[in-house]
Amino acid sequence: MAKSSNRPRSEVSTVTSRIISKFTTWAAMPKGMSTILLGKMALKIAIASVISFLIAQGLQWEYPFYAVIAAIIVMSSTHGSTLKLSIQRLIGTAIGAIAGAIFAIALGSNSWSLALCVFLTIFFTSYWKLNEAAKLAAYVAAIVILSHSQSPWLYAWHRFLETFLGIGVALLVNNLIFPARVGTELRRYLSQTLVDLEEFYRLVVDCAFTGNYDRPTVDVLKLTVINSLLAERELWQELRQGQTNEPIETRVNEAWEFLIRRIWEHILTMEHTVLARQQDTFWQVLSPQINQLALETQNAMLTLATAVKSRKSHLSLPEMEIAIANATQELNQLQQIQQADYSMDELLRFFTFFYTIEEVSRKLQRMAAMLNPNN
Questions:
Q1: How many domains does the chain have?
Q2: Are residues 318 and 210 in the same domain?
Q3: Domain boundary among 156, 176, 196
Q4: Residue 1: its pLDDT value, please?
């Protein structure tokens, strides 16, 4: 009897272990991590919106949903980015509320007042380099003029308070619930960018030797990389402004910002060169060496992606150095080839492609060296 009663427990334990193992594996993969991060962000936004609404409702404010809107819109991945969005929204709300109140009192609630106020609000906020606040300011001003011209200053004041409440709650929730540190977020973006660049690089190299090119996939990859680079630029700026508690010796070397952008540009150059070629045959002469170098380069990108995310501090790429040496040695032995056998355009395309591949490999080596804390 004891054995039969223990069997269900054992089976449940085995099933539970399998589920946990599968979930852990899934969570460690890029898609799993991305899904979990989306879930965390959605949960933070939901919590901030509910808290903002309850506080505004408890204070018996007439339009509590404005506090909810502010909390939802300004919430971002890190404290620094949330603070930046918050400042822009607060400035936009203040400018719009004041401008709307002034025009409502001076010119009344009509189309001429609306047009002039919206024009001047957008023009001057943009002129003052407050681009993120420009449209919001015009939007608030329009609401004041069209719907609250009877008591514009009171509405403007209440709108400012509601926005301030939503922003305060968003900042508080972002710091207390699943706080995302700048350094951690930057490492995640760098890792994912390297993974995307590896796929882009692989598709370009494959096109060089097969002529097949998956343009739809490449177009999506390009857009993803561009968005990642823009996000990384903001995170690098936060890091330089000291919006992190991460010790200097454990931070990602700032040279990575330049190197990863250069690798992106190099792969774009490779793509252009490959797509510009016609019936080139010179490429096939070095195909074994180039394919080996390309393979090692792809492995290096993926290895670096894992290393930077896991904060690994020591990494060497000896296989890639060997592949570079072999390809260069084979290339040097081709000097005896008759130039007449190949057109100058074909040779230029090949050498552009080859030396760009080499540049990508060299920059990856520099990035690996910079993982070490003494570099």
A1: 2
A2: yes
A3: 176
A4: 45
